[in-house]
Design brief:
By secondary structure, the chain is of the alpha+beta class. Helices cover about 15% and strands about 20% of the residues. It is built from four helices and ten strands, in the order ββββββββββαααα. The strands form three sheets. The chain has a five-stranded mixed beta sheet. A hairpin with a 5-residue loop joins strand 1 and strand 2. Helix 2 runs antiparallel to helix 3 and helix 3 runs antiparallel to helix 4. The longest helix is centred in the last third of the chain and has 14 residues. The radius of gyration is 18 Å and the shape is globular.
């Protein structure tokens, strides 16, 4: 099933041009803050080859489906050798019978520009919500700079008929960090880094760093507001109320053997 959709055309375009800083605003104390809205880069994203589907898992019309958390109309950049990937795991009423503990099984696959599978993992999603998985340095080679990678997630509901298993895909590209931006990041606090990444159009680190703040401070109104603004700015507002699953920024769900 994965190999059947791998030939989506890659986007061939010049080196990424990062957007200008986003507008700022003042909080209740009068402090000047950078807007949490994501400032998408000018680079568009290759077209997705999968949409999550409507078959399998007992999903009903109108139900929220399996979905990648990426901008729909811009390349999702990273500056990390081993980034984290995020997607939404929906409610399900039908699972593969091998899932005796009631958890949903998902398969994560990463493919390089030459259509080679460079990393794959079978994971268990113990709950409904936003799931993340970080590439492991012990199991994967670092992402190469200025290279596009195709990543896919399949939710296993029917081991006998893989075509019935919902499938999503998205793209990622690692870009270099300028000396000026690296210096700014090195001197920034953990609270400031999400806004810096969002301003610079670096999706994966903006999402990961903000998710880490929300995971650590789930009741903090300012953090909740930042999370909501960030997702809504790229038309992902449907997921602002969804819980985060597991430890964000690391492999968040236990591995299935």
């Amino acid at each position: 099933v994965f190999l059947g959709i791998l030939m989506s055309p890659r986007l061939l375009s010049p080196a990424p041009a990062l957007s200008q800083p986003a507008d700022g605003y003042q909080d209740a104390s009068g402090s000047w803050l950078v807007s949490e809205s994501f400032n998408p880069p000018s680079r568009g994203a290759p077209e997705s080859a999968a949409t999550g589907g409507s078959r399998g898992c007992g999903w009903q019309p109108g139900q929220k489906l399996l979905a990648p958390l990426v901008p729909s109309d811009a390349m999702a950049f990273t500056v990390s050798e081993y980034p984290s990937f995020f997607w939404y795991v929906p409610e399900h009423s039908s699972l593969d019978q091998s899932s005796s503990d009631g958890s949903a099984t998902v398969k994560f696959v990463l493919i390089d520009e030459n259509q080679n599978i460079v990393y794959q993992k079978k994971l268990s999603a113990p709950a409904i919500g936003i799931m993340s998985h970080r590439l492991s340095p012990s199991e994967a080679a670092p992402l190469a700079e200025n290279k596009q990678y195709h990543w896919l997630v399949s939710m296993v509901c029917d081991s006998e008929d893989p075509s019935a298993n919902p499938l999503i895909d998205a793209w990622i590209e690692r870009i270099p960090v300028s000396e000026e931006l690296q210096a700014e990041l090195d001197s920034a606090t953990e609270n400031d880094r999400p806004s810096i990444y969002a301003r610079e159009g670096i999706w994966h680190e903006a999402l990961t760093s903000l998710a880490e703040l929300l995971h650590e401070n789930p009741q903090d109104e300012a953090t909740v507001s930042r999370w909501s603004e960030f997702l809504r700015s790229v038309s992902l507002g449907a997921f602002t109320e969804e819980p985060l699953i597991g430890q964000i920024g690391r492999a968040s769900c236990r591995e299935r053997v």
